[in-house]
Amino acid sequence: MSTLRFGQHLIKASNVFLQTELSFAMVNRKPVVPGHMLVCPLRPVERFRDLQPNEVADLFCSTQRVANLVEKHFNATSLTIAIQDGPEAGQTVKHVHVHVLPRKAGDFERNDSVYDELQKHDQEDEEIPSKWRSEEEMAAEASIMRKQLENP
Fold first, then answer.
1. pLDDT confidence tier of residue 130, bands split at 50, 70 and 90
2. How much is the average pLDDT of 52-58?
3. How many Cβ atoms are within 10 Å of 9's Cβ, its own excluded?
């Protein structure tokens, strides 16, 4: 695996920390909170309704593994797990993906502000790579996550 397709983007293997038969998980180039990860089906499908039942099962089993890892690693007390399914829901990448965000008390002034941030996080400065995390930073985080999965 040298690259994976994520909608219109090619994702380097170094940014991926979990791959199953039908899904993969990666670090986020522009996280809303530290530890914000994405879980995606391998097959580039735009809408959730277009996934096959086995892809849904694998996607959510993978999401559960990532959620458990993220909650523990980032010392979170809760999680926000979300899918933006379609443009009116805030989906900017035409590939189903699950956002997994570790949450802590007081991380947002208003708890539901996390959804406002999700709505706009990829739309702002989309074409300004200086606002993104570096490849090195993302690869380092993915490496830590990969090792944590191997040695729980």
1. low
2. 98
3. 11
Active site residue 97: yes
What is the model's pLDDT at position 43?
A: 96
**Residue 26's beta-bridge partner residues?**
16, 38
Task: Say if residue 148 is exposed, middle or buried (CB neighbours under 10 Å; 0-12, 13-18, 19+).
Answer: middle
Token pair for 42: 């391998």
Question: Which band of pLDDT confidence, cut at 50, 70 and 90, is reported for residue 62?
Answer: very high
Beta strands in 7-149 (DSSP E): 9-12, 16-19, 23-27, 37-41, 78-83, 98-103
User: Which whole-number Å values give the CA distances from 8 to 4, 29, 128, in the listed order?
Assistant: 11, 15, 16
The active-site residue out of 36, 95, 97, 121 is 97
Instruction: Decide if 22 contacts 42 (C-beta within 8 A).
Output: yes
Q: What is the chain's length?
A: 152
